[in-house]
Amino acid sequence: MMPNNLFILQSSPHFKDKDSVPKIMYTVIISLMPAILASLYFFRFKALFLYLACVITALITEALFLFLRKKSLDSLSDGSAIITGLLLAMTLPPSLPVEHAVIGAVMAIAIGKQVFGGLGHNIFNPALVGRAFLQTAFPVAMTTWIPPITQKINTATFATPLGNLKFQDAVAQGTLAPLKDLFFGNIGGCLGETSALALLIGACYLFYKRAIDWRIPVGIICSLTVFTGIFWLINPNKYASPLFHVLAGGLIIGAFFMATDMVTSPITPLGTTIYAVGIGVLVGTIRLFGGFPEGVMYSILLMNIVVPLLNQFTRPRILGERRKK
Amino acid sequence: MSLSSRMVIVLTSVGLISGALLSTVGILTKERIALNKQLEIENAIITVVQGTHTSEIIYEEKDLVVYGSKDENNQLIGFAVYASGTGFQDKIILMYGTNPTFTKIYRLTILEQKETPGLGAKITDKDAFLQFWENKDSSQPLTLRKPAARSPEELSPFEVNTITGATISSESVLNIVRLSLGKLMSLKKEGKLGNEE
Amino acid sequence: MPPRTIGEEFTKGLWHENPIFRQLLGMCPTLAVTNAVINGIAMGLATTFVLIFSSIVVSSIKKLIPNQVRIASYIVVIATFVTMADRFLAAFFPLISKDLGPYVPLIVVNCIILGRQEAFSSKNSVGRSFIDALGMSAGFILALLILSSIREILGAGTFLGHQFLGSWFEPWVIMILPPGAFITLGILIALTFVIEHKIKQRR
Amino acid sequence: MDILIPIITMSALGFLFSLGLVFAYKKLRVQEDPRVLLVMEILPQVNCGACGYSGCRAFAEAIVKGDVPANGCPVGGEEVAHQLVKTLGLEAVEVIKKVARVHCRGTVSATKESGLYRGIFTCYASHLVGGQKQCSYGCLGFGDCVEACPFDAIYMGEDGLPIVMEDKCTACGKCVDACPRNIIELHNIKQNILVFCRSLDRGPTARKACKNACIACGICVRACPEAIVLENNLAKIVHFKNIPRDKIPDIEKCPTKAIGLIHKENKKQEDDR
Amino acid sequence: MKTKTFPRGIHPPEYKDITANKPIEVMPPPEKVFIPLHQHFGKPAQPLVKKGDAVCVGQKIGEGQGLFSASVHSSISGKVLSVEDYFHPLGMPVLTVSIENDGEDRPLQEIEKTEKPLSLSPKEICNKVKEAGVVGLGGAAFPTAVKLSPPKDKPVDMIIINGCECEPFLTADYRLMLEFADDLLMGAELVRTATGAKRIIVGIEDNKKDAYKLLQEKAGGKPIEVQLLKTKYPQGAEKNLIYALLRREVPRGGLPFDVGVIVQNVGTAKAIWDAVHNGKPLYERVITISGPGIKDPKNLLVRIGTPFQKVIDFCGGIEDGTNILLMGGPMMGLSQWNPEAPVIKGTSGILALKTPVSFKEYECIGCSRCVEHCPTGLVPTRLAKHVKYNHLKEAEEWGILDCVECGCCQYTCPAKIYLVQWIRLGKNIIISNKRKKSA
Amino acid sequence: MELVALFISAILINNFVLHYFLGICPFLGVSKKIDSAFSMGLAVTFVMTITAVITWVINHWILLPNNLEYLQIVSFILVIASLVQLVEMFIRKVSPPLYQAMGIYLPLITTNCAIMGLALLAALKNYSFVETVVFGVGSGIGFTLAIILMAGIREQLDLSDVPEPLKGAGIALIVAGIMALAFLGFSGMIK
Ligand SMILES: Cc1cc2nc3c(=O)[nH]c(=O)nc-3n(C[C@H](O)[C@H](O)[C@H](O)COP(=O)(O)O)c2cc1C
Ligand SMILES: Cc1cc2nc3c(=O)[nH]c(=O)nc-3n(C[C@H](O)[C@H](O)[C@H](O)COP(=O)(O)O)c2cc1C
Ligand SMILES: Cc1cc2nc3c(=O)[nH]c(=O)nc-3n(C[C@H](O)[C@H](O)[C@H](O)COP(=O)(O)O)c2cc1C
Ligand SMILES: Cc1cc2nc3c(=O)[nH]c(=O)nc-3n(C[C@H](O)[C@H](O)[C@H](O)CO)c2cc1C
Ligand code: SF4
Ligand code: SF4
Ligand code: SF4
Ligand code: SF4
Ligand code: FES
Asked: Could you tell me if C58 and C76 are in contact, meaning their C-beta atoms sit under 8 angstroms apart?
């Protein structure tokens, strides 16, 4: 028999679903597009430069590590580094100097992903590791905001809705951003978080493509609503409404695009639910009682730490298994 | 000699020798260390109430100490208040000087803090923070200026500045001062602050 | 194994048995005090002082001490020297002493010191113990120096308090904070593995 | 006074503490057979488990109790056995130095592929789908044995067969366990003649699958019937000591060289390295 | 009527229309057959013939050894050519009787029909089934006689006849249900009699509605219930089927009769009827030959021992571009390199597919699809990793031995990890280690 | 309220491992398996609590009244060393299963700076008796939390493809770094 006539010898199954890792990744990239376009509209070139810097740096860093580890450079095309770059950029303030963004992207890929062995092995969400690194390295630059182009004001410093809430007592002063603005994006904040609408459009696409686990966004939003709702009901003059909390800051992008990162979220259904509820509660706690106006990043990272334990201790019930009480 | 007694003797004598050595060192350094502490306080008092010649504790409780400052002529020129409270990370200990009626704050200095370096830790920095605390009018409640002013002239006498990116630390300092001042006022009303005047 | 020469006895602490990079001992002070070079040096010197003197004392009284009270006696000896160092710093360098906080007293539980007494001084002559202690301290100081230089330069833009990088450089605050310490040390340890591996391959 | 209080305090602490220790020493000391430690120092400390115990320590305890003979540690070999005998005053035992040997010459060039294997690259995994070589008995060449050897004593030769470095091999048997096709076996190191094939296929089938297969032609059996037999289409050396030196050239007339001297082979291996 | 089903599982493309409408054809016996003595779960059979012996159709040529074994019968009449190791579809060479056809198809003389099989005693039914060498035709080839005599302390109240045929492409069971409905229902009754069970349920997926209707009609008046199931893979896996139909869970490591159930494939039911009623040993079976690589796909009644090549040639041969040959369905079938391998009792189909030759394997991205789809409730990615990193103890703790190797996990895995192969590897190593330990 | 704040801060904000860098050696050494990490955490918490009580007593009843602060180091370490040994012997006598679970980690604790650090920090911060106890328990729980989380992560990393040079201490330190980074999210929570 000629070698080219040989049959394939393999273990069952011989059918495979058409979905693949790059397909999922590119689905996510497409679903990010509405929000990216919105941020380009709101922040123009500043946004563009940040996106380019983050994505290119992420790719270069990834390539460097693949080269050092003598792995095939093919993996660059799986799209995961692009997502990391894009999502990192989306969590940066528009006024951040580009060189800082570059440092963030290097850290995201190097410390957030490659030191653990690359795609699939990381414990923490790489984009958020990058952001947390930047937030801690350059706290001032990371908390300096400019208004979107739609707000025709010209102040050097500017506060985000959550910043207002935390430091200016916005509820009592009545200066809280209107929900409409939060929804359409007429507010200051990180590139990707300004317009909830654009993010939700992308999220719908993700659901349509079944690329994410519904438990995560639903769990986060519900638990945050309940948590902030309780305080709001107790004292609506001091605490903002749950709807405000859901729409403000990085919650939407975090709940739909970052907490859902498959690598860093649990693999068991029960674990996933606990993870999501944990994020929601932590976001509420940090926003209401912590030192920072926003807690999405920290909450996701904190729950990332717990994910291995969740996986370990929430093994699903095997068919026919009787659990000991 | 049995093993047990050897164990006892050896360890006891090690303890003995160590005790002897340590007490020597302890005694030799004791004064110096006490002096260091005292110097630190005295320096702080001189910084916050300029012109102090002598000072003495006139009131003391946990986390609040008031030093009365007198000039060469033994005239009371003000109080140095040692106070502390929680900052962003940990305790902040500071000292500020007031005039004898507590209506004016001369100056502020930070004795101990563990705020974030480069950020909250700027509260120890003269240019970034302390200079904005010079000569404040405390007859009314002080307020925080946010966003931050660039120079002391921009501030009203009742306003103190924030450090950009470290609102919490700035606010904490203000709170410590506010709280201790309030306390002192009421103490004064009760006549517990000595009868200097 | 043939007995090591004096030189080898000294240099092993610098690299092959470097307490921090190779043996992973005494991590706590290493991480805690290296936010500035000056603190690192002070810590290194204090540790050196304790290590050398306790080595000398331990190796010279080793015959007198029954096995059962060995550790206890060593601890007392070490603690005595630590207290001396601590008092000395507090008396003459109050600022540094304040910065180092409880980490100077913590030298007493630093695994390097007790480890060296156990592994070396209690078995070797005074001279050898002295050299060994010297080498180990040098290795420790070296590690502290590297770590603290990286952290201070990146975290504050300064070296020993002097402006090192130009004013264009925006310091990475994270390097002075705990995360920076952990991450930098992690990377340094990985680097020493790589270097060691390269050295082995050469041979 | 200032000096006295600390001195007294410290001495008292030292005294109390030493009393505590004396008490502990007397009352709560755990008895441990000191010989276990001695044995531990002799053992190779690789904790490979080849002795059948969970590690060197367990083996040490067993040997002190007298549960195993002094040659129970295959890794330590003669030298360790000798030292153990000396230290523990046991009866001297004979130690046969064994090494692992590969019973296959199905190199990549000699064998035919059966299919395009797609899957996990280990011998065991390939074996479970039938193996990617037409010979169902031969080496699959993914090196499970190499992976399993704790002493780096096996490496993969260029032609896709594992090669044992006999000086490093400690006869721990890990490779024997790892090979799904039972190609590796431990042999007395002095055995210098070996059948390098495991195929039970009939001659023509075997030959079709692999040029170096044993085709059960019986030449070797005829050369030395006292030591070699044919069993299930495969030559088998029953007792190598029965092979007289002068018969070896006849045995080596094997048309596929499936049987032969190992040391010639070894020389070649040395060069390969 | 409501359709029932089980949780999780997948929906692979079905491709059943290729052969669904083709009636079962009888394939003439080939010139030579190769009958392995090991075609079932358990010990191989002991050969009863030797080279040169003459045999006739249905003559026993291998005797089952011990409890878990089954006898093997000749499928043609002719002369024994050899009794030797020969290729086997499972991969390893197996002792095989090769027989040359004399073209006469001489049946065995002493075949006796039983007129009233339903009045036989359980013992007698069992014996006849055992004599006929019947094994499960649903895949595992478990000796049926063993199944029919469950332990006394585990009374069986329910017989499930498995007509799911959930594997893509395969239609053999479907055609069998349409064409031999009476036989298989009678077979089911025999099983019920043999085990003393009360009820029989036939489970059929809703992509085979006409079979469902037919059987329901025929079952009228008998204590037989026919139940429609929502089409989903692996409905036919017995633990899932039992759950779908009865909401009973077979305990981990247990067997269906731990919950009072016996599951038999429809083909097995027919084979039981043939064995008991007609005294016909199991020497032929219905298989589906299909797939894009087959020129003329068919459902065939084939003699056991016929080489695949002959069967394929009978179906017009193989198309160019075919690169994989399977015995069984695409989800659980075994890939074959040698078309000379013979059809065995467990062969449910022969498929020739054209699959993409290469695809990239990625690292597990933790998407949890494998977990969501595993019908057994396992965490396949975890199992695979534990095997990969040699943590066999953990793999066992995570339930690796419960895996039925259905392939759902690997089917859905976007990273294309060989999950099932890892798991199979781990199971094999664990089981062989256990054997070594107990030995 | 103050005490609750102190307690929470000791666990989350001023975590011994992630904030003060105390007890790194066991944190790195005993965090390879969740079970042993848990036992180690228990042992540390236990010893910390007792240490907090006893060193407070020594400090406030013997050392401070006699102006002997400089004997703190020597006396604390002696106390800790003997305490650990006594506890070990005690547990071994009283409850062998407990000894199996955590006893083997006890000797490691002597040279663990977390314990000594606790005694020193409590003395340095001038905590009252109750505060000291709360601080001790909280710090112990904080240590346990950190080491268990670390162990969970390391068990998962055992199933990962971590680059060779980073395996072991390297990756553990980086993970600790990112954990410290995440725990910064709690800072500023106690005011
Ligand atoms: C997904 C996501 C997560 C974020 N997490 C945090 C966070 O944990 N902490 C934070 O200060 N800002 C975070 N941000 C940025 C904030 O949403 C927002 O810009 C911040 O509230 C600005 O407030 P500040 O400048 O007053 O700190 C995040 C942004 C995004 C998009
Ligand atoms: C790592 C890190 C450390 C911080 N440290 C301090 C600090 O020491 N003091 C402080 O007031 N704010 C600190 N912040 C920032 C506060 O959380 C908060 O964002 C800030 O007080 C808001 O000030 P702004 O309104 O001027 O932006 C820190 C932020 C980060 C990320
Ligand atoms: C994943 C999987 C799928 C199966 N699919 C079927 C099927 O479609 N039809 C079938 O009859 N048996 C199927 N089986 C086999 C059954 O589980 C069971 O063994 C069989 O129905 C028992 O009947 P038998 O002994 O008559 O073969 C499957 C098994 C597994 C593990
Ligand atoms: C739904 C989804 C969400 C993702 N979110 C992130 C993210 O938040 N941050 C990130 O770095 N990568 C994200 N990725 C990309 C990828 O999973 C990530 O680079 C891996 O964590 C790297 O191992 C996401 C991918 C998917 C499919
Ligand atoms: S694994 Fe095999 S080759 Fe390696 S030492 Fe053990 S017996 Fe020898
Ligand atoms: S000898 Fe065995 S284990 Fe080694 S490569 Fe060959 S088949 Fe694999
Ligand atoms: S783990 Fe086993 S039972 Fe579960 S889906 Fe995979 S093959 Fe099927
Ligand atoms: S389906 Fe594949 S990629 Fe997804 S969790 Fe399972 S093994 Fe990982
Ligand atoms: S140096 Fe802190 S525990 Fe070892």
From this structure: no
Closest residue CA from atom 6 of ligand 7: E409
Residue E10, strand partner residues:
E233
Q: Which two tokens stand for residue E221?
A: 């008046």
User: CB of D95 closer than 6 A to ligand 6?
Assistant: no
E60-63 and E72-73 strand pairing: antiparallel
- What angle, 0 to 180 degrees and rounded to 10, lies between the N-to-C axes of helices A296-313 and F129-157? 70
Sequence letter at residue F115 = I
Q: Where are the alpha helices (DSSP H) in chain C?
A: 6-11, 27-33, 37-61, 70-92, 94-100, 111-116, 126-156, 178-202
Which residues does residue E233 pair with via DSSP β-bridges, in sequence order?
E10
Can you tell me which residue has the tokens 């190791």?
E85
CA A21 to ligand 8: nearest atom: 3
List C-alpha distances in Å: A113 to A128, A242, A308, D267.
11, 34, 16, 48
* Euclidean distance between CA atoms C98 and A48, whole angstroms: 47
* D185: DSSP letter: E
pLDDT at residue A157 tops 60: no
Alpha-carbon torsion, ordered E278, E283, E288, E291, to 10 deg: 180
The set of long-range contacts for B137-140, using a CB threshold of 8 Å and a minimum separation of 24, is B137/B103, B137/B104, B137/B105, B138/B98, B138/B102, B138/B103, B138/B104, B138/B105, B138/B181, B139/B103, B139/B104
pLDDT at E8 over 50: yes
Nearest to D51 by CA among D73, D84, D81: D73
Helix axes F169-183, A126-137, angle to 10 degrees: 70
Using the mean position of ligand 2's atoms as its centre, give its distance from the Cα of residue A287 in Å: 13
Work out the end-to-end distance of chain E between its first and last CA atoms, rounded to an integer number of angstroms: 53
Q: Compute, in angstroms, the gap from residue C25 CA to the centroid of ligand 9.
A: 7
Residues D6, F68: C-beta atoms closer than 8 Å: yes
Cα gap A274→A312, rounded to integer Å: 13
Query: Could you report the predicted ipTM of this complex, rounded to two decimals?
Result: 0.87
State pLDDT tens for residues F24-36: 888 888 888 898 8
D window 19-78, beta carbon within 8 A of F: 20-21, 24, 28
Are the beta carbons of E167 and E331 closer than 8 angstroms?
yes
| pLDDT tens track for D178-227 | 999 999 999 888 888 888 998 888 888 888 888 888 988 888 888 888 88
At residue F101 the predicted structure's pLDDT band, cuts being 50, 70 and 90, is low
